[in-house]
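ok so I'm stuck.
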Amino acid sequence: MIDLWSVPTANGQKVHIVLEEAGLAWRATMVDLTNGEHQTPEFLALNPFGKAPVMRDSEGPGGRPLVLAETLAIAWYAAEKGANGLISDDPAARAEQMMWAAAISSSVAMPFAMQFFATHLAPKPDPWLIETMTSGARRSLDVFEALLAERAWVCGPTFSVVDCLLFPVVATSAKRLDGWLDGYPSLRRWHDEVARRPAVQRGMAVGTD
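replied:
not stuck anymore, here's the structure
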């Protein structure tokens, strides 16, 4: 059984979707960030950075328990363990999947996180920061719009772990942008196809009640 300490944000949703698509047995405990549950000694023992999600697999490799933090690491581990085709067996295709997965965790996540900070958390609005981070977020969407104009899924003809990782960015984070997916027809087509998947629906529903 996999235990997940998570949050109902894009980072948590990424892992929820992968776990559901991988067909693994898991259960979630939602972490209340507003009450500082991510800074308790118990939580910091799982992840000293005090970030969610965090995973503990009681039946990890070799039958030994395994604790993992960081969204990408958890999602990749779950995709490999589930062995449902979310990660390619072909070395070149697998390398491309890792490239896009890493890009989503860094090049895409950063401007969206900073855009949220600038528009919702900053004590004083900074027009330059808001415009810079909003433009960066839109540029990341531009990259995937161009890619998905030529492909059914992010890494080609097959749904993969990368689609699981991108979906919450588009479905949750990008909704903060004016017009959401206006002007992104390929992303909208892809979003709608992913959203119809039962495992994705189950993953996105975790922590919403």
